[in-house]
Structures are given as C-alpha cells and as structure tokens.
Design brief:
Elements lengths: L1 E5 L2 E5 L8 E7 L5 E7 L5 E4 L2 H23 L2 E5 L3 H6 L12 E5 L14 H8 L8 E3 L7 H8 L1
Parallel strand pairs: 6-7, 7-8
Antiparallel strand pairs: 1-2, 1-5, 3-4
Length: 156
C-alpha cells in the first residue's frame, strides 16, 4: 500500500503503481455551459510517504501550520473534518500546542444519528481518538436526531 499526499489532496493508493492525482477546476461559459477541466498534479506537489503513520504525521503538521497561519492572520482557526481515516491521522500527542483553544471544528459528512453513537457519529469517533485532548476546541455538531431536514437546518 502506498500513501500519497498532494498539496490540498490526500489520497491512498492501493495499486502500488505510479499515481495520477488530477487537479480539477470547473468553469462556466457565457452561454451557461459548465466544463470540468482535469490536469495532472505537478510532480513537485506529490509526496510519497512510507506508511499510514508517516501520512498521519504529515497531516498533523499541515493542520498545525494552517492553524498557526490562521490564528496569526485572523485570531482563529476553522477546521473541516470529513471523518473516516483522517480522524485516526489527527490523533497524536504532538497536536495541542495552544492553538486548539482558538479552533472551531465542523464535520463535513455528518450522519443523522445520536452524537454519542461511537459506531456511526463522526463527532463521537473524534472524541474517542483526539478531540478530548484538543483543549478548548469547539465543535459544531448536529442535534443527533434522524430527521435530515431538521438537522440540516439546525447545523446551518
């Protein structure tokens, strides 16, 4: 298994062969048609790391650097977390260096489940893996019902 990180994109390659990670952009013409443009990611923007631990360390460094920049420029850091394997990558003893108290977390793939459901709720998984150690970090969470429309309205 090869783990590949590009600037702004994290991808896991299971093929063991060369990876092609496209850069995408969307444009709209004056006539209203939409085009998707896909171009290869520049080679200098692709890093091949040895294993999941190395990817996790890299992800944590990216987050810490982004937090430092955001706090320096705006006084606060906002982090959107998709769930899945990224949650495991964010777990690390090297994460709280004072910036977490100036951080707001939003989850980008919430499920309509109770927020304490450790098997389904991204928020519960984040707490178990790392969020309890991120002193002062605030998370925007849903109410925990199974009503998708109400949850979307509340979350918004």
């Amino acid at each position: 298994m090869r783990f590949i990180r590009t600037l702004g994109v994290l991808s896991t390659s299971l093929w063991g062969a060369s990876a092609f990670i496209p850069t995408r952009s969307v444009s709209r013409s004056a006539a209203g048609t939409t085009s998707l443009h896909i171009a290869p990611t520049p080679v200098d923007d692709v890093f091949i790391l040895s294993d999941a631990d190395a990817v996790g360390a890299s992800v944590r460094e990216i987050v810490k650097d982004a937090a430092a920049r955001a706090i320096s420029e705006r006084g606060h850091f906002a982090l959107a977390i998709p769930g899945g394997s990224i949650l495991k990558m964010l777990a690390g003893e090297d994460m709280d260096e004072g910036w977490t108290s100036k951080t707001t977390i939003a989850y980008v793939n919430h499920k309509c489940v109770p927020m304490d459901d450790i098997n389904l709720a991204t928020h519960a998984k984040a707490h178990k893996l790392f969020l309890d150690t991120w002193v002062g970090a605030e998370a925007i969470v849903m109410d925990g019902s199974n009503d998708g429309d109400a949850e979307a309205t509340s979350y918004e």
